[in-house]
Amino acid sequence: MLQRFIVALLTESCLIELGGKYFGIDPIKQLEIDLHGEYDKEIKILYIEFLNAMLKCVESYEDDRASELASMIDDIINPLITEQYKLLSLMREQIINATVDIEDIEARMKSFDARKQKIAAAIAGQS
Question: Which pTM does this prediction carry?
Answer without folding.
Answer: 0.74
